[in-house]
Amino acid sequence: MKIWLSDYQLQFKAGGSRRGYLLKLQTSEFESGYADIFPWPEFGDPNFEKVPQQLQHPQGIPLLERSLSMAELDGRAREQKAPLAKGVSLPNHFLIRSLGEASLEDALMAYQQGFRTFKLKVMRDTDLEIPFILNFCSKMPVDARLRLDCNGRGTVLFFKEISDARERVDFVEDPFSEASLWHSSDQDVRWPWAYDQPTVETDEVSYDFRIIKPAKQKIPEDDHPLVFTSYLDHPVGIAHALVAAAGYGEPSVDYGLMSLNVYQETPFHGGLLCQGPNLQLSGEVGVGFGSLLEKQPWVSVL
Q1: What is the pLDDT of residues 215-238, one digit of tens each?
Q2: Chain-wide mean pLDDT for the chain?
Q3: Can you list the positions of beta strands (E) in the chain?
Q4: Model confidence at 149, in pLDDT bands (50, 70, 90)?
Q5: Where in the chain is the domain with CATH 3.30.390.10?
Q6: What integer is the mean pLDDT of 1-28?
Q7: What is the largest CA-CA distance in the chain?
Q8: Dihedral sign for Cα atoms in the order 240, 65, 231, 49
Q9: Listing from the earlier edge strand, what are the strands of the sheet with 145-149?
């Protein structure tokens, strides 16, 4: 087995950037298979600088194990000249990147394009978030649904403040860091919960949806609806997440794979086809991006 890396940098439209790696894998079965490694150390991933060294012994590091597994899947498909997830088009929510009237106008435009679910990260500035949520509910069409992501930082007071929005909220991701609050009998604090990456274990809490990030998670055995999402990563990573979601079967809910609009456009953006909320691959072999991947400056690490 041989492994190469090519580092990249994604520029946020809102300012700032994050770094990651494209990975190229070669085995006795295929010449080249590609995947993405986009670390978020704050969620338990290795630091960007440590990735090349840790690829020497990736066991027990979910982000690296999954990347190698996806590169293997891609490599086998390329060897057979077969596209992955051919013809599959999956529906997604629209990611609201900031607060204010301009973002509400963006949401209205997205609604006109076919989006019906909208995601907002909260618990950063509730003085702005609470009126935005209530304004969203009063101004958006009645079938527009809102998904809130608390990242485990929600409070009872916050949910009481937005109680008028309850009927418009699809679900809330990782509402609390305390397991007991997920089970609260207080009607103001019992919304549809979605389990993503909280500090509590799945068997400690009650939830209604399960968020799955194929970039670092295998598909679990779970009786709850699965919501596949990107890792806010490179288009190659998003393509692999789409392949994983497509393999799960017909979606019963909107997914969260369409995060391309968070970053400044790259040449790789064109390898994913967006039609309103629906996302699909270009139809090239493997996950696509063939000519772009071949031109990357690859550095051997194994």
Answers
A1: 999 999 889 999 999 999 999 999
A2: 95
A3: 2-11, 17-26, 33-37, 90-91, 94-96, 117-121, 145-149, 169-173, 193-195, 209-212, 226-228, 272-275, 278-281, 299-300
A4: very high
A5: 2-85+289-300
A6: 97
A7: 59
A8: negative
A9: 94-96, 117-121, 145-149, 169-173, 193-195, 209-212, 226-228
Q: Under CATH, what is the fold of the domain 90-281?
A: TIM Barrel (3.20.20)
What is the radius of gyration, based on Cα positions, of the chain?
A: 20
Residue 278 to residue 106: CA distance in whole angstroms: 17
Residues 76-107 pLDDT 10s: 999 999 999 999 999 999 999 889 889 999 99
What's domain 2-85+289-300's superfamily in CATH? Enolase-like, N-terminal domain (3.30.390.10)
Q: Is 55 helix (H, G, I), strand (E, B) or coil?
A: coil
Q: What angle do CA 231, 233, 235 make, to 5 degrees?
A: 125
Express as a percent the part of the chain with pLDDT over 70.
Answer: 99
Q: How far apart are CA 22 and CA 276, in angstroms?
A: 27
Question: Environment class of residue 287 by beta-carbon count within 10 Å: exposed (0-12), middle (13-18) or buried (19+)?
Answer: buried
Position 184 scores a pLDDT of 73
> Rounded distance, CA 215 to CA 231, Å?
6
Amino acid of residue 205: V
Kindly report whether the global pTM for this prediction surpasses the value 0.90.
Answer: yes
Given a cut of 70, is residue 188 above it in pLDDT? no
Structural tokens at position 115: 């989006």
pLDDT of residue 302: 86
What Cα–Cα distance (Å) separates residue 288 from each residue in 3, 268, 300?
Answer: 19, 10, 22
Which residue spans of the chain are classified as CATH 3.20.20.120? 90-281
CA-to-CA dists, residue 85 to 241, 279, 292, angstroms: 11, 11, 20
